[in-house]
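Onboarding guide, step 5: your first structure request.
Type a short instruction followed by the sequence, for example:

Predict the 3D structure of this protein.
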Amino acid sequence: MSGTAGALYWESLGPDDGETVVLSAGLGGSGSYWASQVPELAKRYRVLVYDQFGTGRSGGEVPKFYTVKDMAAELDALLETAASGPVHFIGHALGGLIGLELARLSPGRVGSLLLINAWAEPNAFSRRCFSVRRKLLLSNGPEAYLEAQPLFLYPPVWIAENSEWLDQEITHQLAGFPPQENLLRRMHALQTWKMPPEELAEVRVDALVLATRDDSLVPWTCSQTLAARLPLSSVKLLPTGGHAINVTEPERFNTLMLNHLRKHRLPTEAKVNQEVL
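The system replies with structure tokens like these:
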């Protein structure tokens, strides 16, 4: 099943009566990022993937002063149409920030969180990385930007062993590259996002914060700080996998993901209605 809600393109896969799992990608914004997770999830869960506004099949011009809160509000409106009851939310980097904002914006909407290499506030290292990426895009264009992107997402050995796949992926991404201004405004929203400790304390959702020591874009200590400020969280620190561990080590990641989902079963619709009454 697929459709559009507002300007967002979405698809759902798996059994209609399964618990709903929402997958939210990072800066790239495309639901296709989760290609290694959807088949496993769809065996048991109703999986909802979507393209974030201004990316992929969700066209439109990203406005000036766009924020992560805006991204969460767009997803909240989508879920009004495409889901009933609480959902599991899995977010990578920027996608994780969207999940945190969604949990604050719409209490009861999110039943569990899995946050991959996410953070609570900007840090100096990531700021330098995004500054370099922005300058590459502005001075050399999308192709140079995409050629550099794997250096921030994947470990060196993995890049060396997957060179052919990366070349194909760059060609595919170049063909569907978003309008430059859309990417720059989304990048600005990501870089300036911050959720103070008192606001994080309001996110009373069972959360697993997953980080990798060899992340070349976001220091693992950022995830550690985030987990310490979330009242119902645990943190899992892995030695390898890079920024995009669900791509580089899908079997290991999928096992952790499925264990997390089994541990945090969602209430049935009947129970939710009882609690509302």
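Each response can be followed by summary notes, for example: The first helix runs from residue 38 to 41.
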